[in-house]
Structure formats: structure tokens, C-alpha cells
Design a protein that fits this description.
The complex is a heterotrimer. By secondary structure, chain A is α+β, with helices and mostly antiparallel strands. In chain A, a hairpin with a 7-residue loop joins β2 and β3. The longest helix of chain A has 30 residues, at 332-361. Chain B has a single domain (3-120), classed as Rossmann fold, CATH 3.40.50. Helix content of chain B is 38%, strand content 22%. Chain B has helices at residues 12-24, 36-42, 62-71, 90-97, 110-120; strands spanning 3-8, 28-33, 48-54, 80-84, 102-105. In chain B, β3, α3 (62-71) and β4 form a beta-alpha-beta unit. Chain C has helices at 8-13, 22-26, 92-95, 168-171; strands at 38-45, 48-53, 57-62, 76-82, 85-91, 108-114, 117-123, 125-132, 152-157, 162-166. Chain C is built from four helices and ten strands, in the order ααβββββαβββββα. In chain C, β6 and β7 form a beta hairpin. Classes of the chains: A alpha+beta, B alpha/beta, C mainly beta.
């Protein structure tokens, strides 16, 4: 396969696009001119670029006449955009003429019999245009402009820089840091904001301070507006605006006018690219931007006087620059520290309450105790406001991740040669920063899976009577104190029969047992580690590749994942997450004298049963609760704690019902201690992977207590064959068993 | 194992042309991007043997991309080959000043492209770049 | 080789690579201070002397209360709270597969940092701080009998003692912390790893 031999319709389709674009640009320029406005340099540049592309294309495909015309036109447009020729009605006429000629030539291209288009008259007109006078750039000298900037400007960019200076505009350096995955989205947003103020001259990527995930850009902007206004207008995470000195036109040197008001001064800017390790976040804060400060010793005083064209820009270096960023970046660990302190204050408060209760028992302390109680109530109200405030600071919209995903969809879709319509809703739904960060990988994985394996090829879709473009929906919404994120596609769905076969082949379930499983239970096998090999992937349309990893990540966030699929119709994954990670409500329990916390959002209810309520089926204890059979799990056994039965009272057995949807089990514990807000702390790298343990927390008096990872424990239990068998057998024989209801 | 190559070019036909020449040799695996921003994004994710870029692109131009690659410790040794319409332009000169390894003026043939690439790439015996 | 066992805490508080002792100044001149000398904290585990570079140790603390963590290896005593952080605490004797000595009054917890994480290691006694030059370290872990060679970085012979310098990257090998039967596939998807 070589280029020049490609079918000519490749050329035609792109050439037509290019000519249409040229035509659009010219029409807009024409409108601006008729309205007496100054023309938008970007439009003229775009027109130049269109012709430039056309020329490259035409020579590539040996469309010699088109190449010749575009070559001539390119020179003219180049002169126009560089200010060497003036864009007047005459020039526009010639340009419009050219568009028509191009269209005729393209129509004739490839048609053997078509008469060649005569372009000589047009060429003559183009030539006549070029004979015009030359504009001079020299009156806006760039002497002294930092070579590191000048050296990388294209000729056009340099011309625009001069033009901006000639027009008396100030020059600004906008420093921005972008997430590489979402850079196009970020740039587009920033560009829109900046264009409202003036002209974006160029983008300079900076080589230093860039990590693999981020990139820093210096954007050169010309504008008539003052620094503060621009800074306020582009305010955004990681964006800092500097004014390049001299750009507002001071005389320079010793004859400079009297000290300028509000002369900007260098200030240490916030590092725009965060160090790779700690996650950072942005906190809104107001920075005083009206302060008056003297110029640095070495800097030129700047003036807010009317702009005067000047050729002395010796200090165009960022000497007198100043950060007017509206945000402060704060290390997440510092917020965690504050959160810890609040948690500890909570413990102090609880202790105070306890002392107060004891004090109340004594006689003769009535009034003071009442006073104290009042103060304590006020304090706890303020404390929870403080806690809420801090949590709010950590909240970020999911849009951050969704933007990245939108980008991935485009990329992956293109790679896979599939047309994907992505619809996003709920971008503004907020979650704790840490959760959002941890979510991006699992979500990326799921979206990729949906496109790579879920959505069928165009042909397959048409054959199946579906729209040619595949649909992927990303939805987020809040439900109570949880956030649900759904990834849904309208692809081929998953075939539970195939999943069942694979599960049997992988010895995840015996053939006999598999027959008993419902389709939902079978589909859940995709979250098992055995479902990650390529062989399996192909046999089940690739769905579930790495889904075990996704599930692990989600459960680390105390979240749950559910899947719903229909063969031929599509698949929907739903992730349910707590809104915030840092502080959760927990049920404190005891078993074998050890204390544990269970996240309250996974506790459905706590009940007390008697030994006689418990039935043993196939060696597994179960109870019946409102007509449902629940397997019982002894936390002490799962955790290999001592089998001490001293605390065992056959009349008072505490069972904590945990789980989600149909996945429910009863955890047998010795004691229910109470409910409490707890600050979750990570266990560190070495213990992070202990299954069933999600973290630790402090319960006052420096007592460190483990927090259970309920979803892992439930999964563990439900995949044990005796549990599965017992539930099925018990459900079948419930009529005869007739156990006591609670 | 074919080497990975990054092709940065905003004209689709041109991009396809360059890619197909490179891929036809069987020696290269091409990642195509259509603008400077996409190139910046692709860089950390691919270990590219070299980069072929158009000079004249909006926003982040071929010059700026070249300078970025040269100034960045991670990519410093990756040769950048710039392609341009006009072999005498200031832009091309600046790209070379910024550290481009070679240039090629459009239009060019497959042989010319491959020849320039071979010359621009460091020979295995001189691994003496600091 | 300078040993100042009585000034352990001072030595801990001091940091920096070159340490000139008071002796150096007493003689009226300052001896050449070498930049490659390292200070080691020596401690006793089951009757043997072990050492760790002082800059690996962030704190030495009395034994404090820990919470056992189920499903972890025998040498993991549990978790403890050190300045608001929850960190794993291990029994160094069990980790080195030595016969643990009864924990007496002299037992201490060495809080060490490794790979940006803190760990606590319970030792029988903290002995002294010693300055060792690189050439005094014998790079011969093969000479150590038994299976614990992998945990040993080097040996050094002092006047009356042999100091075994520990290799933290193996002692604190994180996958060993979880009991083998509970080592799930908690594959970590690294940043950008899906691209």
C-alpha cells in the first residue's frame, strides 16, 4: 500500500473539505469587513492553512493544476496573513474567485473527459494583487524579546506578536498545567476564555516540570485589558497569568514617567505542575490583587498611560510579573491532617459527654451540668459544621473524570474503527477528590471494554437492525448518601451460557452446581479472577477482561459494582459509592473480644436471633428472614480468631445483615457496641491487600480498630460452595423447616 | 518488533501518505496524530524511535514541538524530522535551530522520506551523545 | 570507628552524613571529616546484634499497644498508631526466623521508613550508635547460616561484637505480610496503565 497510488477519492474527499473550509473562512472575513470590523487574524490564518494543505495534497496526488493554483494562492494568503498585503475587497474577490475555480477543478478531477479548467485569468489577478505595496513590520521591533520565545515562533506567530505590540496591546504569558489525557478539552475551554480578551499568539509547551500525566504550557496572549481582568477571566485550576513588562508601552529607561500605580511585581507562583507523589487539590481562595508594590530594583517601571508603540522591550522577560491566581493548591495530606484533628475532637467531645453523664448522677450539680450540656451541644453542632466544611472542600465534580473518558472514547473508537456516540450526564455530581482519582482507572477500563468488546462492528450493527453508531452512556447521580455511576452500552451484551461454560472450564463452579445458578449469578462470574485470560475474553466477547481488578478497586473505595446485561441489547454496569471516604458512619461490633467497625452503608439491619432459629443445611448455618434464606458467617471463623464460646449466649445471638441486592449474608458477632462516625485511615502498602479489611480507625483512647471490607467478605462467603448449596437447599425446603421468624 | 514512530500532521491525506510509506517497510509501527497537542499527549505513552512532524501547524507548531522534545530529558535523543512546504522558509530554519534532525520539503517521494529518516537517525556505533 | 552508646538520642537527633566527634576537636585540630561515614543504630534481637543506618530510622519508641490484624503472617504483630498514622508493627525476631526472646523492659519499637511508608519493628533492646566506614562493611551475606541470608545486607566486626546490617527491602517485602492463603490478586492498575 503506497500513498500516491491510493484511490483518488481519498484526495477528492479531503480536498473538498479543505475548499469548503476555505470558503467558510472567507465568508466570515467578508462579513467582518462589511461590518467595518477589524478582521480576525485566526480566520485569515485558517484560510492560509487550508490552501497550504490543499497544495500539499494536490502535489501528493499529482493534481498538478490544483497544486499550481494553490501554490500561487498560498503565497498571496501568506503575504496577507503576514501583513505584507492588505486584505481589502479586491483581495477578497480574488479569493472567492479561487474557491469557485477550485470547486470546478475538483469536479473535473478524475473525469477523463472533462475539459481542463482555464485558470490563467485567475492567476493573473492573483499576481496583480501581489504587486501591491509591502507593509513593514519593523515599526514594532522585538529587540530584546527573549530568544527562547522568539526562536520557536513561526514567522506568522512572530508577525502576530509584532502586530499586537503595534496595536499597543499588552502581552501576557498565561501559564497553565493540563492533564495530558484531557488537554484538548482543557485547551479549548481556556482558548475560549482568552479569545474574549484578545488574541492567542501561540502555545509553548515547557519541557521542564512536566510529568507523564501533565503538561505545562505557556500561552502568549495579546490584549488591551489589564492583568487583573484577564486573570479573573481565565481563573481556573493551575492557570497563572503574568504580564510581560513593557508591553503596556512605557518609555523605558531613566526618562520613565513617575512611579506607576499598581506596578506588578514578581511573585513566586504556585507550582503549576504538582509533584508526582501526593495528590493535590485546589481550594478556592481570594488573593488580594489590588496591593500596591514597588518595582523590583532591576525592573523597568511600567506605566498605565495610553499605549505608545515603542521599540524598547528590553524587559520583555518576565521580570515584573505577578501571580493573580484565584486558587491555592493544597496537599491532600494537609486536609487529611485537619480531618484527623476533627475526628480526634469528636472523640474528646464524646468523652466530655460521658463525664457529664456521670456528673449528672451526682447530686447538687444541676445548674452547672445543664450549662455544660448546652455548651457541649453547641460545640458538637459547630464541630459537625466544621467537618462538613472540610469535606466540601475535598469534593470535586465527576466531570473531571468524565472529560478524560470522553477523550478516550474518541480515541478508542477511532482505533477500533467504530462510530461511538457518547452521552454524559451528571458531570456535576460531586465526590471526594480521592474517590474521583481512584475511579478514573476502573472507569477507563470499563469504557474501553464497552467500545472494544461491547459495541459491535458497524456491519454487525446494521445487520442486527441497530443504528450504525454505537451508544455509550455515562451517567452519574446521587442516591441518598451514595453516588451511582453507570456505564451502559447498546452493544452485543453478554451471553450467560458462554460465561457459564467458561466458569465450568475454569473450575469456578461444577457443572451440576452451575445448572442451579440464576443468570445474574452466572454473569457475576465475570468479576472473578479466572475471567481475565484472552482465551476467555474472546469466547465471551472480551467482556470482563480485568473486571476483577475493577471490582477490587471499587471495593477498596467501599463501593459495589453490579452488572446487568441482555444478549444483543447491551450491558450496564452500575457502581455505587459513598459520597465521601474520609469520614463514614460505622457500626462498632465485637467478636472474640476484638473490636471491628462495619461501614454502616453496607449494613442493612442488625437483628438478634436464638440458637433455635438457626438451621444447618449441608453443613452451613442459615436463618430465614422475612421469607429469605440468609447464610450465616461467623466473623471469628473467617478471621481465624479464637473459637472462644464464653461470650456465646444461645438466646442472644447478634446478626448483622450486610450486603447489597440479592447478595446478603448475616455476620454473627458477639456484641453490638454502637454507631459512630469514624475517620478512615489507610493501612499502608503492606497490609492494604489483606482481604476483608478496608482500613483502620481510632476509637478514642488511642484504640486502633479495623474496618471491615464487607463486599469482599460477602463475595468470599458466597463463592464457597457449601454456602451456595445451603442457600439453595434451604430455599427449596423452607416449607418443612419452618424456623422461627425474628 | 517494529519500532514505534510518531507522525504529526494536520492534513489527513498527508498523514496517511507518510504512515503508509513507513508501515510498508515493515520496520515501523506508526502512531498518527493530527496536531501538536495530541503529539504532546502521545509522547509519554509511546517509546518512539523518531518523530515526523509538519512544521506549520496551528497552536503548537512543529518548531515548538521540536524544542519541547529537545529540551525534555526523556525525549532528547529522539530525532525529529520536520516536513515543510517550503525548503527556504524561516520556519524551517527555526525548526532546525530548535534541534530538528532533518527536514524534507513537500512534495517528496517514499524513497526520499526513508532516505532522510535513515540519515537522521543515530548510527548504532556512535552512542556518544551526552 | 567511634562508638557513643550513651548519647543515642543525640545521635538520632543529629542528621547529616559526616559527623566529627568531640575528640576530633580536642586535639586542637579538626581531622579530615569523611563524607562517606554512616551512623548505624545497633539493636539486639534474640541475642544477636543487628544494625540499621540511622537515616532509615525515624523514631525509637517504647512498646505501645497494637491491634492484631487477621489473615496476616505470624511476624505481623498488628497495627499501631504513630503520630496519627496507622502503621504495621512487626516482630523482628519472628521475621528473621529467630527464636523470640521474652519481651522485657528494654524492648523498643524502631519506627523505620521505607518506600514512603512507616513500619514499626519490635526489638529486644537498642544498644548503641556506631559510625562505620564503607570499607568496614563485609558484603558477605552468604556467610550467615540459615535461611535469613536474604534479609542481610552486610556484616561488620566491632571490637567485641559482630553487627549484622539488615536489608530493609527484603525484611519489609510487602507480599510477605499477608498469609499465603489470603494473598488475592489485588492487581494494581497503575496510573496510565490502561492506555
Amino acid at each position: 500500500m503506497t500513498g500516491p497510488d491510493r484511490p483518488s477519492n481519498e484526495f477528492l474527499s479531503e480536498a473538498q473539505d479543505v475548499v469548503e473550509e476555505l470558503s467558510r473562512n472567507l465568508l466570515e472575513l467578508d462579513t467582518q469587513q462589511r461590518a467595518g470590523q477589524q478582521f480576525d487574524p485566526d480566520l485569515l490564518n485558517a484560510a492560509f492553512r487550508a490552501v497550504h494543505s490543499l497544495k500539499g495534497l494536490a502535489s501528493l496526488f499529482n493534481a498538478n493544476a490544483i497544486a499550481q493554483l494553490s501554490h500561487n494562492l498560498e503565497s498571496t494568503l501568506d503575504a496577507l496573513r503576514l501583513g505584507k498585503l492588505e486584505l481589502g475587497p479586491a483581495a477578497l474577490d480574488v479569493l472567492f474567485d479561487s474557491v469557485e475555480t477550485f470547486q470546478r477543478m475538483l469536479a473535473a478531477f478524475g473525469e477523463e473527459k472533462a475539459a481542463p479548467v482555464d485558470m490563467d485569468p485567475l492567476l493573473a489577478k492573483i499576481l496583480a494583487l501581489s504587486g501591491g505595496g509591502e507593509a513593514d513590520d519593523a515599526n514594532a521591533s522585538l529587540a530584546g524579546l527573549d530568544d527562547s520565545i522568539l526562536g520557536v515562533l513561526t514567522e506568522y506567530e512572530e508577525h502576530r506578536l509584532r502586530e499586537n505590540i503595534r496595536m499597543g496591546r499588552r502581552l501576557f504569558r498565561v501559564h497553565a498545567s493540563f492533564d495530558l489525557l484531557a488537554i484538548d478539552v482543557g485547551i479549548e475551554a481556556l482558548k475560549g476564555k482568552m479569545k474574549a480578551f484578545g488574541e492567542v499568539i501561540t502555545y509553548l509547551p515547557s519541557a521542564d516540570a512536566s510529568s507523564d500525566d501533565r503538561i505545562d504550557l505557556d500561552i502568549l496572549v495579546g490584549s488591551e485589558r489589564p492583568l487583573a481582568e484577564i486573570a479573573a477571566g481565565v481563573a481556573e485550576d493551575g492557570v497563572t497569568v503574568y504580564e510581560l513588562s513593557g508591553s503596556s508601552g512605557s518609555g523605558g529607561g531613566a526618562s520613565a514617567p513617575a512611579p506607576a500605580p499598581a506596578a506588578p511585581r514578581a511573585k513566586a507562583p504556585t507550582p503549576a505542575s504538582p509533584a508526582p507523589s501526593p495528590p493535590r487539590m485546589t481550594v478556592e481562595a481570594i488573593e488580594e490583587d489590588e496591593e500596591e508594590e514597588d518595582e523590583d530594583a532591576g525592573g523597568q517601571p511600567t506605566s498605565s498611560a495610553a499605549p505608545v508603540p515603542d521599540d524598547d522591550y528590553a524587559d520583555l522577560e518576565a521580570i515584573s510579573v505577578r501571580s493573580v491566581s484565584q486558587t491555592v493548591r493544597v496537599d491532600l495530606s494537609r486536609l487529611d491532617h485537619l480531618m484527623n484533628l476533627i475526628g480526634e475532637l469528636g472523640v474528646v467531645q464524646a468523652n466530655l459527654g460521658g463525664t457529664l453523664d456521670r456528673l449528672r448522677m451526682r447530686e447538687g450539680a444541676g445548674d452547672m451540668v445543664r450549662d455544660l450540656q448546652g455548651h457541649l451541644r453547641t460545640m458538637s453542632r459547630k464541630l459537625s459544621l466544621l467537618q462538613q466544611g472540610l469535606l466540601d472542600v475535598r469534593m470535586v465534580p465527576l466531570g473531571q473524570v468524565f472529560d478524560k473518558l470522553a477523550r478516550v472514547v474518541r480515541q478508542v473508537g477511532r482505533q477500533a474503527g467504530k462510530d461511538i456516540r457518547l452521552s454524559i450526564s451528571g458531570s456535576q455530581t460531586e465526590l471526594d477528590k480521592l474517590i474521583v482519582e481512584e475511579l478514573s482507572e476502573p472507569l477507563l477500563h470499563m469504557v474501553r471494554n464497552a467500545i472494544d468488546h461491547g459495541i459491535e462492528s458497524r456491519e454487525e450493527r446494521i445487520e442486527a437492525g441497530k443504528p450504525a453508531a454505537g451508544r455509550v452512556d455515562l451517567r452519574a447521580f446521587q442516591r441518598g448518601n451514595r453516588v451511582v455511576i453507570e456505564v451502559e452500552d447498546d452493544g452485543r451484551g453478554m451471553d450467560w451460557r458462554k460465561i457459564r461454560e467458561t466458569a465450568i472450564k475454569r473450575s469456578l463452579v461444577t457443572r451440576e452446581d452451575a445448572v442451579e445458578l440464576g443468570t445474574n449469578e452466572i454473569v457475576d462470574f465475570i468479576f472473578m479472577p479466572g475471567f481475565t485470560t484472552r482465551e476467555v475474553a474472546t469466547s465471551m466477547s472480551g467482556r470482563g477482561v480485568g473486571m476483577d481488578v475493577v471490582k477490587t478497586n471499587i471495593s477498596r473505595l467501599s463501593g459495589m459494582i453490579d452488572v446487568d446485561t441482555e444478549l444483543g441489547r447491551g450491558t450496564r454496569f452500575a457502581i455505587t459509592l459513598p459520597v465521601t471516604l474520609a469520614i463514614i458512619q460505622a457500626l462498632v461490633i465485637e467478636t472474640c473480644r476484638q473490636t471491628f467497625c462495619i461501614p454502616l452503608n453496607s449494613v442493612l439491619e442488625s437483628i438478634m436471633v436464638r440458637q433455635s432459629d438457626i438451621v444447618t443445611v449441608e453443613g452451613q448455618q442459615v436463618i430465614s428472614l422475612r421469607g429469605r434464606t440468609l447464610p450465616l458467617l461467623h466473623l471469628s471463623r473467617m478471621f481465624g480468631l479464637s473459637n472462644d464460646t464464653r461470650f456465646y449466649d444461645p438466646e442472644r445471638i447478634y446478626v448483622v445483615i450486610v450486603g447489597l441486592a440479592q447478595h446478603r449474608v448475616g455476620l454473627v458477632v458477639d456484641e453490638l457496641v454502637g454507631q459512630q462516625d469514624v475517620v478512615i485511615k489507610p493501612l499502608g502498602a503492606a497490609l492494604r491487600s489483606v482481604p476483608g479489611i478496608a482500613g483502620a480507625t481510632e476509637l478514642g483512647a488511642n484504640r486502633t480498630v479495623l474496618l471491615l471490607d464487607v463486599s469482599t467478605l460477602v463475595d468470599e462467603a458466597l463463592t464457597r460452595s457449601e454456602v451456595v448449596a445451603a442457600v439453595e437447599a434451604e430455599a427449596a425446603g423452607r416449607e418443612e423447616a419452618r424456623p422461627h421468624g425474628p | 518488533m517494529p519500532e514505534k514512530v510518531l507522525v504529526v500532521e494536520d492534513s489527513r491525506a498527508m498523514r496517511v501518505f507518510v504512515s503508509s510509506i513507513l508501515e510498508a517497510t515493515g520496520r515501523f509501527e506508526v502512531q498518527e496524530v493530527e496536531n501538536g497537542f495530541d503529539a504532546l499527549r502521545a509522547l509519554p505513552r509511546g517509546d518512539f524511535a523518531f518523530i515526523v512532524t509538519d512544521v506549520n501547524m496551528p497552536d503548537v507548531s512543529g518548531i515548538e514541538l521540536t524544542k519541547f522534545v529537545r529540551d525534555n530529558a526523556k525525549y532528547r535523543k529522539t530525532p525529529v524530522i520536520v516536513i515543510s512546504t517550503d525548503s527556504a522558509s524561516t520556519d524551517l530554519q527555526r525548526a532546525l535551530d530548535a534541534g530538528a534532525a532533518a527536514f524534507l520539503a513537500k512534495p517528496f517521494t517514499a524513497e526520499e522520506l526513508l532516505d532522510v529518516i535513515d540519515k537522521a537517525r543515530p548510527q548504532s556505533e556512535d552512542g556518544d551523545e551526552a | 570507628m567511634a562508638r557513643d552508646s550513651n548519647d543515642l538520642w543525640n545521635a538520632l537527633a543529629r542528621s547529616g552524613e559526616a559527623v566529627a566527634t568531640e575528640e576530633d576537636y580536642e586535639h586542637g585540630y579538626k581531622r579530615e571529616v569523611r563524607g562517606d561515614l554512616r551512623q548505624y543504630v545497633a539493636f539486639r534481637v534474640s541475642g544477636e546484634s543487628y544494625g540499621l543506618s540511622i537515616d532509615q530510622i525515624s523514631e525509637i519508641s517504647k512498646v505501645f499497644e497494637t491491634t492484631p490484624v487477621p489473615r496476616t503472617a505470624d511476624f505481623v504483630i498488628g497495627i499501631g498508631n504513630v503520630r496519627g498514622r496507622v502503621i504495621p508493627i512487626l516482630d523482628l525476631a519472628l521475621r528473621l526466623r529467630l527464636e523470640p526472646a521474652p519481651r522485657g523492659r528494654d524492648a523498643r519499637v524502631l519506627i523505620v521508613h521505607h518506600d514512603d511508608e512507616l513500619y514499626g519493628m519490635v526489638v529486644d533492646e537498642v544498644l548503641y550508635v556506631v559510625t562505620i566506614a564503607p570499607e568496614e562493611l563485609e558484603d558477605a551475606p552468604g556467610a550467615i547460616p540459615g535461611a535469613r541470608g536474604e534479609y542481610i545486607k552486610a556484616l561488620t566486626r566491632l571490637e567485641d561484637d559482630i553487627l549484622i546490617v539488615l536489608e530493609l527491602s527484603t525484611v519489609l517485602q510487602t507480599r510477605d505480610f499477608v498469609r499465603a492463603e489470603h494473598r488475592g490478586r489485588t492487581l494494581k492498575v497503575t496510573k496510565g496503565g490502561l492506555a
